[in-house]
């Protein structure tokens, strides 16, 4: 049973959490609500939140709060300039 839902700021992802101890991320890009990621958490999900820049997801579970951060994308130009220095 889904107990919490959040929509990414850019509107391309829906995140759900529930009593099954899972957080699921669905893609809205093609309109088919395809599951693209799922992870098991330590307790039933009671609340979800996404930061305004979509970089962090907060998962509330009873007396526990978990914060997940998206790995930042490496800017190719910055990476190439860094490699030139080496």
Automatic annotation (TrEMBL):
The protein's superkingdom reads Eukaryota
Q: Entry's InterPro entries?
A: WD40/YVTN_repeat-like_dom_sf, WD40_repeat_dom_sf
Q: Does the keyword Amino-acid biosynthesis apply?
A: no
What's a single GO CC term here? nucleolus
Name one process (GO BP) from the record.
rRNA processing
Localisation: Nucleus, Nucleolus
Does Nucleus count among this protein's keywords?
A: yes
Gene3D superfamilies registered for this protein in UniProt: YVTN repeat-like/Quinoprotein amine dehydrogenase
Supply the alphabetized keyword list. Nucleus, Repeat, WD repeat
**What's this protein's name?**
Uncharacterized protein
**Taxonomic lineage:** Eukaryota, Metazoa, Ecdysozoa, Nematoda, Chromadorea
């Amino acid at each position: 049973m889904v107990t919490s839902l959040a929509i990414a700021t850019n509107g391309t992802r829906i995140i759900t959490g529930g009593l099954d101890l899972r957080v699921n991320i669905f893609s809205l890009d093609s309109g088919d609500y395809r599951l693209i990621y799922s992870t098991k958490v330590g307790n039933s999900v009671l609340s979800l939140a996404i930061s305004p820049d979509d970089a962090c997801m907060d998962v509330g579970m009873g007396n526990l709060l978990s914060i997940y951060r998206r790995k930042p994308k490496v800017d190719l130009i910055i990476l190439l300039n860094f490699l030139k220095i080496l």
